[in-house]
Design goal:
The complex is a heterodimer of chains A (259) and B (334).
Chain A: E1 5-14, E2 17-27, E3 32-36, H1 43-49, E4 60-68, E5 71-72, H2 80-86, E6 87-90, H3 102-112, H4 119-132, H5 136-139, H6 152-165, E7 170-174, H7 182-195, E8 200-204, H8 208-214, E9 217-223, E10 230-237, H9 238-243, H10 248-254
Parallel strand pairs in A: 3-8, 3-9, 6-7, 7-8
Antiparallel strand pairs in A: 1-2, 1-4, 4-5, 9-10
Chain B: H1 3-7, H2 9-12, H3 26-37, H4 39-75, H5 89-125, H6 128-143, H7 146-171, H8 189-213, H9 217-225, H10 230-259, H11 262-267, H12 287-294, H13 300-333
Helix pairs in contact in B: 4-13, 5-6, 5-8, 5-10, 5-13, 6-8, 7-8, 8-10, 9-10, 10-13, 12-13
The chains are: A alpha/beta (259), B mainly alpha (334).
The structure holds adenosine-5'-triphosphate (ATP) and magnesium ion.
Chain lengths: 259, 334
Amino acid sequence: MAQAINVEDLNIYYGDFLAVEDVTVTLQPRSVTALIGPSGCGKSTFLRTLNRMHEVIPGAYAKGSVEIEGSDIYGPGVDPVNVRRRVGMVFQKPNPFPTMSIKDNVLAGVKLNNKRISRSASEELVETSLKGANLWEEVKDRLDKPGLGLSGGQQQRLCIARAIAVKPEVILMDEPCSALDPISTLAIEDLIHEMKQDFTIVIVTHNMQQASRVSDRTGFFNIAGTGKPGHLIEIDETEKMFTNPSNSQTEDYISGRFG
Amino acid sequence: MSTPAAADPASTAPEQDPAQSPEPGGSKAVAGRRSKRRPGDMIFTGLSVGSGLLIFVTLALVAIFLTVRSIPAIRDSKELGGGPDAISLWSFAAPLVFGTVFAALLALIMAVPVSIGIALFISHFAPRRLATPLGFMIDLLAAVPSVVFGLWGGVWLVPKMQPLYELLNTYVGWFPLFGGDPSTPMRNLATASIVLAVMILPIITAVSREVFLQTPRLQEEAALALGATRWEMIRAVVLPFGRSGVVSASMLGLGRALGETMAVLMVLSPGATFSLHILEVGQHNTIAANIASQSAEATPDVMARLIFTGLVLFVITFVINALARAIVSRSAKS
Ligand SMILES: Nc1ncnc2c1ncn2[C@@H]1O[C@H](COP(=O)(O)OP(=O)(O)OP(=O)(O)O)[C@@H](O)[C@H]1O
Ligand SMILES: [Mg+2]
């Protein structure tokens, strides 16, 4: 299920503005890769090019190639819709569908993809997805209640359940805990740990403890200055990145000597 | 934020400016003194309360006028035991009410889907280069006077629709709406409804577009990230989000269609039946068009009857608006 992602010579533009320059990297399957770096260095931008979500923004485009399971998601004739079914995404702010119940939220992706699904199969999918997101015990008695009635942390786990329900190969998370309290954050970090058995996970975070807690590898992005493109400075085993990085910029950043 | 201070005034009092001291009644007195010191505030308050009252008074005056002046018609009607040769108010007003509501509903049925389509196109499909001028054009359409629509409908549209009506009547004539025996020129309710539909299209489109544009971006991205196509995203997120807005926009349109006068007057050749055959000529009329065509040479008792139909129209639009509000506030809650 989980697949490696090979990124080669990726340049990302917003109109004329080059936001991220020359990223070449391999993201390992069945592992968690954390992306850190100062604000505005292009972490979110890079993350969104991994499932072509940047194309939602008018004028945004990417050059280069991103291969998942050997096929380029930017290849000719590749439908971004199909890419997004294989590469799921969890956003910074929990965003369950407000008009849907908890159950319908979990099933939303499956129903959108127009798959016909029997009642028993859908009940099973709801249960496994919610269990996969460590939310089942908390909501199993109120599956028909609106998703918005949950706490922020529960909503975020509902969004994770929704993302894993479509059985993607990769899950991208853009600061998934930044709107949550410490307890909910820990719950999600535990969840990420369990999820890497099945998925390739890429997570953007500003919290370096979080990066060191959840990730196997960490990548550091930086920019030379405003208006300059972001670069992937270094990517390595998380332990090495936080104890003995090879690049001095990385060392400055993680030791708080940035800027 | 303000609750702790209110719950424990003693602790915050020493730090506060003496003018805001929380002694009993103090804050009220302060507020009162302040607003007296600012003439601008007073003038503005006076103006806004005054105009609020003015609207209320005007509405009441209109209602009173309609009621009082239609009393003779009600009193002398056959239903309330007028003389043996009294005219039945029911048989006078009911076909008009039927025609009015029928025409407005037909217009709504035609206009709403088209409006939603245009609004979605402008808000979610068209490139910005195209969306802006298109939105502008729709707004312009709203500014065209209804006489112009009436002229266009009566002179241009009526003959143009004739072949289609004949086809419908021949092949789908078993369906009540298209049955009957249409004769030329086809100044029928169908054409009148089309003109009404064109007239209410801009308002429904404009309001719907505004609501669709307000769909939270995060919701849209949630759907897209799940692998939704654009249309699936619209179905899952944009339409549910915009539903109450579309309902209220449609009700606005319905209100306008119910009261529209000139377009109907200039297109429809009138009648007074409860016929469902919208292609047949001389079967229907609307309250507003009837009042406009009759009032100039009306005798006092005819006038009273016309005013009575005006009262009915007033009540209908009132009820429609109340209904719209109820629907909107209910869907806002859920
Ligand atoms: N929609 C957009 N249109 C134009 N430029 C954008 C857009 N989104 C981001 N940018 C620019 O791209 C660069 C990278 O932004 P991005 O959001 O990827 O940074 P980030 O590393 O995620 O920052 P943060 O940590 O604050 O989330 C910034 O210079 C930003 O101004
Ligand atoms: Mg970001």
